[in-house]
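Title: Prediction job returns without error message
Component: structure pipeline
Severity: low
Priority: P3
Assignee: unassigned

Description:
Job completed but the reporter wants confirmation the result is attached to the right record. Sequence as submitted:
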Amino acid sequence: MTSTARARGALSTMPRSTALRLAATALLAGLAATACGTGAADDPANAGQTSQAPQPTDIDTGATVDVRLVLEPTSLDIADTAGAALDQILLDNVYQGLLTRDENNKVEPSLATSYHQSTDGLTYTFHLAKNATFHDGSKVTAADAVWSLRQVTAAGSKNPDAAALASVKSVSATDDHTVVVTLKHRDTGFTWGLTGRAGIVFRKGTDFASLSGKENGTGPFRLSTWKRGSSITFVRDDAYWGKKAKVAKVVLHYIKDGNAANNAQQTGQTDIETAADATLLQPFSDTGKYTVLRGDTTDKFTLAFNNASGPTKDVRVRRAIRRAIDNAGLVKTLGGAAKLVGGPVPATDPGYENLTAVDAYDPASAKKLLKEAGYGSGLKLTAQIPNIYPTEIGDYLASELKQVGIRLTVRQVEFQTWLDTVYTKHHYQLSLVDHAEARDLNNFANSAYYYGYDNADVQKWYAAAQTATGDADRDALLRKAARQVSEDAAADWLYVSQTLTVVRAGVTGVPRNFTSNRYDLANLAVAKK
């Protein structure tokens, strides 16, 4: 779920049974209509680079780094309020879980410095860092971790990631620094689930309602100030139990407009511009002053179909829509910095298979399918698209569908309206949103999700993948499920975007990949002048 200017406060608490991350960042993360001034000028898809300068020997530990982000959270209550805007800034920086993810989305230790799994796959033992503390100075103990996990797994849990720990049977502590989790069944996604909100360790007894205005995390930064509508400031926790942050302060500036963000970067108001618009990169072509980083994302720009009602309940209509849209042409129109996928699993997730041949662009075949479905004389459809996305996408879709006899009316709506009408009430025919979260194939195994897609085989295969005995078996089942989802035309995955980040010279340690989901600030460093 995610790409450019998001309306302030766009993400709010969502139904817990279908909690997910609706993107909150990088509009057209790297997509553009013209060649860029950095990277291969004749190929926007290659704008930017995948490496940055090493950390300088002499760094300014008292420095402040200013970062441009797009979507501002509506609340700082990470235990109860859904939305990627919270994960992006609070995970790893202010709050930490038992486990985390690295720059390549691989699971790594965090508050749990090590762990092991029993041979039957049902018991996990986590060994906590013995010197970890909360920001209020109290020590982190196994009792805190046990309490936190029990809040997530309790009946009626409001944690947006509660489903990630649905396999948990019991949680206990064997001593002050050892946590034992027993599962009901094997769960190949269990450790991954702990890298998100579900794995955060709060101080035992924390009143989650209080988190909207203050925090008591264990991360390398503390929350300093929040100027709503403008910025959030973090300061280094000099008492941090682990490796301390290399800068004293980070100011996160919420700037939706690409031109305004560019101006802030050029004038020195920001040091880092995330979600840079590739059409506006020319001012940053001087590699002596700037570096443009290109990174991978799991941002799947998804044209959703209502599988449960209306004309799109007919698979022939859904397949016709997919065949009528030249996704490669859309990417080219937007500038090229994206990848085609053809299915619900991006290349960086387990179970990936290139499915672009499924319902590939074929307008003649699309017309034939529409005629078979009883719409040979034409069909009128409406697409609801949050107004945080560029109008060019809706215009392109309408133009493509018109060629096969589908008259598409595009309704640009506020994101909150989209959440209420499409996501919650399922009152829609077509919809476009950026699904940013990794490993979210489960949404197609959930008939209650807003897609309305209900396939017993997909549900069976997905469930079996979660209890597989190894990654190879898991991935094979996920590929099987993903292919079926694509062949059923449950949606059309227009593209998976890449993200561009502009960094001023002298700043290093900048996150490059998956920046919509989390933005680890601990390695930022500034060279002394």
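Comment from assignee: result matches the submitted record. The first strand starts at residue 64 and ends at 69.
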